[in-house]
Task: inverse folding
């Protein structure tokens, strides 16, 4: 186990076992990509069902109750189970390499984070087959969710609780990795922007997820154990849930969008062959956005009756965020300005992102004006706004990032031709779908509405919107075909496939060795690999002689811990129906989890060493270069 | 990590230096420990003396905060070098918690 033979060919079962037990951040990245991609498709199918239902007036493609379940699951799945894990995939795949680390700080916790997310998401989605999905919106406002019948909301609360733990662990791991594991010379102000945005987003996760956890626990107790935090009849207050949710919820949108900003900040310099314009102001803007992101949550609650003073404070704070965001936009434009630009697929996404995201930002500022929001709130205008920031910012970042980092993760290059077709279809579809929704909203079409009547001027807009959605779907299908073809052909493209890689991750041989860096690199400035290339070198200058490398052992325990909670959640949920088996199931699940934790605590696992001789020998053979 | 680094290559000098440092630290720890016990006594006394609850609650909370700070800085060595990141995150957490409590006290009606 302790040699490089490690990376040799395995059978199918061997590969599955390897991934079930892996603690390697590069493999965990692939797990996140697969699971996040799966949930993205599930959420996408739900979106298509929504658009089919709303394509024509008085439609009855789905019933009203089912429609509520679909929109709830669409939002929840997309935010928690698709966008976040996909970003985590890139963070895991890229960030440790960008800072010149051999591994993350807590490989075991990293794996645990993934499995908790996965089982939480699985639990949530099993609601479809076990008596109905949650139907109170992804915001699950308490006055609705306490009244919701069946177990849908319980699936929501327990599932998000489990996957939320996973996200929190992932965030903490990234924070500690960035603080402690940087290569010699990699100071904070030399960190690539994607690392910086990962850092700030992880800090936001650290502070934003605990309020969600508290809120979800209160919801669970109100629904399952008869407490009355949100129950007005028992002296509670339903507004408390809204505060907890949005104290988490607004930072959450920045948790999502900041890493996407980071990906674009890597793509722009690479394909403009220029360093990022205004690096330090970019860092400053990132940190400031993170900070302000915590001061604005009540802009989601302007119409709940907070009073004019609170509304005014939160309105001004919200508008203030436009300033650092504007700084970033101008810096990106200045980065492209005068560069020698290559219109590769990632670069196309990055360029399309700028106007798309700005439109979402502008409508955001409009909504931030509290009196205007009384008109806009809960209409399709809001739907248009957040899709412009989410799709125009995050999803474009995810797809662009997937094309950009595909060679790093898999060693192959996605087809540029198919990529461009996907790009055009997706971008056109996106604007067709959501631009018109601004006007539908202004005409008074409410958000989360099951159907509408003919003769109110809403038909054409909705039909156009649905046609746009179909374009996006076709674009994504072509991307999937692209992926299948590329992986089937399996043409390895080697090191620095874009030729203009600037940061450390592109300095590594491809496929990346499982120990990442044979010798830790010496970082001599921003864009370290570019600096070396400008001096005519092809590799990084090492900062240390070749020596033994310490690696962690694989472990099946993260999977078991998460599985235990998954089982326990069924027990917790069905005990409210007085099912005799529920409590035993709860106990068994908890026993599995705590048993696995106990094993982990008692059993010493010191990992293994790759010996210097093996590394040198590999060098002699010419290795994988 | 950083607090494990030695600041001198001369083992003798650094030993002497650290001895002095430790002695100093020990003195601070004893002092703060005494003060913490004293604070606890005052807290009990304040409740026992039967002041108005509008005085007692803020007062006891204030003493508690001071004790937490003592604990962090003198017993958990947060004043030492190499804890800047931890400090940053703790203060950010305190700030977020504070803002949350502030809004809950001001704009949620019961
Ligand atoms: C950058 C990424 C952003 C994301 C992902 C995002 C996402 C969202 C989402 C999901 C909502 C819907 C809330 C609901 O359920 O009603 C929303 C509403 C809102 N957003 Fe954003 N947003 C972003 C940026 C901004 C910006 C830059 C601003 C203002 C400068 C802004 C201001 C608002 C306001 C005021 C609302 C509340 C509208 C209402 O509910 O009536 N957002 N946003
Ligand atoms: Cu918000």
Result:
């Amino acid at each position: 186990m302790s040699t490089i033979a490690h990376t040799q060919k395995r059978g199918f079962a061997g590969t599955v076992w390897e991934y079930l037990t892996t603690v390697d951040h590069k493999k965990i990245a692939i797990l996140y990509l697969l699971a996040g991609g799966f949930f993205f498709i599930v959420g996408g199918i739900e979106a298509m069902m929504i658009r089919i239902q709303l394509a024509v007036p008085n439609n009855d493609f789905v019933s009203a109750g089912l429609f509520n379940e679909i929109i709830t699951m669409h939002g929840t799945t997309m935010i928690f189970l698709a966008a976040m894990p996909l970003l985590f995939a890139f963070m895991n795949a890229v960030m440790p390499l960008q800072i010149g680390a051999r591994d993350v700080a807590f490989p075991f916790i990293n794996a645990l984070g993934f499995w908790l997310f996965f089982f939480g998401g699985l639990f949530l989605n099993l609601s479809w087959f076990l008596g109905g999905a949650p139907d109170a919106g992804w915001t699950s406002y308490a006055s609705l969710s306490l009244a919701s019948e069946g177990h849908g909301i319980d699936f929501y609360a327990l599932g998000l609780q489990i996957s939320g733990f996973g996200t929190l662990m992932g965030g903490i791991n990234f924070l500690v990795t960035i603080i402690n594991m940087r290569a010699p010379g990699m100071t904070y102000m030399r960190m690539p922007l994607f690392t910086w945005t990962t850092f700030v987003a992880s800090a936001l996760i650290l502070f934003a997820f605990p309020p969600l956890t508290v809120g979800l626990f209160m919801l669970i107790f109100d629904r399952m154990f008869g407490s009355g935090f949100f129950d007005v009849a028992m002296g509670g207050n339903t507004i408390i849930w809204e505060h907890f949710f949005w104290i988490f919820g607004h930072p959450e949108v920045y948790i999502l969008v900041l890493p996407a900003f980071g990906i674009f900040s890597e793509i722009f310099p690479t394909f403009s062959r220029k360093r990022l314009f205004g690096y330090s102001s970019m860092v400053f803007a990132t940190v400031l956005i993170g900070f302000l992101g915590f001061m604005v949550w009540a802009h989601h609650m302007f119409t709940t009756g907070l009073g004019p003073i609170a509304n005014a404070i939160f309105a001004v704070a919200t508008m203030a965020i436009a300033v650092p965001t504007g700084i970033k936009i101008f810096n990106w434009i200045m980065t492209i300005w005068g560069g020698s630009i290559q219109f590769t697929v990632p670069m196309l996404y990055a360029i399309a992102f700028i106007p798309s995201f700005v439109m979402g930002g502008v409508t955001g500022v409009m909504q931030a004006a509290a009196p205007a929001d009384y008109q806009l709130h809960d209409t399709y205008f809001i739907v248009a706004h957040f899709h412009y920031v989410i799709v125009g910012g995050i999803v474009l970042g995810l797809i662009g990032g997937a094309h950009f980092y595909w060679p790093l993760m898999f060693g192959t290059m996605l087809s540029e031709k198919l990529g461009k077709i996907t790009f055009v279809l997706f971008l056109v579809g996106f604007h067709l779908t959501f631009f018109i929704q601004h006007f539908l909203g202004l005409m008074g079409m409410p958000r989360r509405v099951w159907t509408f009547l003919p003769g109110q001027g809403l038909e054409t807009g909705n039909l156009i919107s649905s046609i746009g959605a179909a374009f996006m779907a076709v674009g994504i299908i072509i991307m999937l075909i692209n992926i299948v073809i590329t992986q089937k052909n399996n043409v390895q493209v080697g090191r620095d496939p874009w030729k203009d890689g600037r940061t450390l991750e592109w300095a590594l041989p491809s496929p990346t060795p499982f120990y990442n860096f044979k010798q830790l690199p010496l970082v001599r400035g921003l864009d370290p690999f570019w600096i070396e290339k400008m001096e005519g070198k092809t590799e990084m200058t090492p900062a240390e002689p070749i020596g033994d490398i310490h690696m962690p052992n694989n472990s099946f325990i993260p999977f078991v811990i998460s599985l235990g909670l998954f089982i326990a959640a069924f027990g917790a949920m069905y005990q409210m129906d007085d099912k005799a088996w529920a409590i035993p199931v709860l106990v068994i699940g908890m026993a599995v989890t705590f048993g696995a934790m106990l094993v982990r605590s008692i059993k010493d696992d010191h990992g293994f060493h790759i010996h210097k001789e093996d590394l040198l020998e590999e060098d002699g053979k010419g290795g994988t270069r | 990590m950083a607090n494990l680094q030695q600041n001198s290559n001369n083992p003798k000098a650094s030993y002497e230096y650290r001895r002095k440092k430790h002695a100093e630290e020990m003195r601070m720890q004893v002092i703060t420990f005494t003060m913490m016990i004293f604070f606890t006594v005052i807290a009990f006394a304040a409740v026992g003396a039967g002041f108005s609850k509008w005085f007692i609650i803020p007062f006891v909370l204030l003493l508690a905060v001071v004790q937490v700070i003592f604990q962090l800085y003198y017993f958990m060595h947060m004043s030492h070098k190499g804890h800047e990141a931890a400090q940053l995150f703790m203060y950010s957490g305190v700030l977020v918690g504070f803002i949350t409590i502030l809004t809950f006290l001001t704009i949620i009606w019961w």
